[in-house]
Write a structure and sequence with these properties.
This is UAA transporter. The protein is built from 14 helices and no strands. It is an all-alpha fold. It is globular.
Length: 353
Amino acid sequence: MLKERPVPLQLGNAGASRAKVDTSYTWLAMYFFLNLSLTIYNKAILSTFHFSFPWTLTGIHTLCSGLGALAMARLGYFTPATLGERENMVMLMFSFLYTLNIAISNVSLNEVSVAFHQVVRAMTPVFTIAISVAFLAKRYSGKTYLSLLPLLMGVYMATVGDYSYTAMGFFLTVLGTVLAATKTVVTNRIQVGRLQLHPLDLLLRMSPLAFVQTVIFSWMKGELDDVVSFCQTEMSWKLVLALLVNGTIAFFLNYVSFTANKKTSALTMTVAANVKQVLSIVVAVTVFNTTIGFLNGLGIMITLFGGACYSYVEWSEKNQRARPMTPAFPPPSPPGAATPSEKEELLSVRVVN
């Protein structure tokens, strides 16, 4: 006997209320909130428990994301799609791209300063545009390009500092930025292209593969042995609970990030990531008492202004595309049809007996 799924309670105007909440701006707002929350939580775990194992933390994120997506599928929130061999290979390549992006970013940080790393990563929207134009034949308006200028300049000013780097570090940082842009574009295409995967379905398929690859990278770098030694001496139930909450936040962040990417665009997500990066500096100032200079503060304000400019341009262009086109001249009448003046003359004719 099949167990019927519970039907959610429908209130009077529930559909209209859900439409007002389920918007791209709502998902972007949740993306900002969860991203900043995870950043603060990661910093708290690092400072409180001295759990300085980035690959293991990433593995916990991917594992919890996979388990969370599986639970949502079992509860009936979405139905996993049936994919063929080719589509499964796409998922494998996407998971490898996801893991490789993290790996290159972590390795490049050892070769360059944090300020230089942040400035180069701020160029992700530029690479996103280049990839979309070259491979997806997309076109952007001049206003879109202009709105990105204050954003890039603001990130540069907000992260100004020691710009030390090596030749290899410069190459790896640029490569990581290209991979980040590619990952964002591919994520959007998987969800809105031919596959049309649900965000949770994408998370369900990608997370286990990324978890295995992350564990392999951790073993290759020797971090796995350090984690085993750490667990034998300093592991506690408080740390286990903190890591579980951390993984839960990562699951919701990944879900919200994929959904926001689907409802907006790859370029919007890279712009949002830049604004989030600057907001992280604001959080560091207010929560962790980090000191910044006048130029950094001015850069933060310029970045927020650039993000607002981009949002306004995207909103206005989206409304313009949605507005129905009205012809400048009335369409020609089909052959044999009466013109309005002829119709009036016909209606004014009186029948004489």
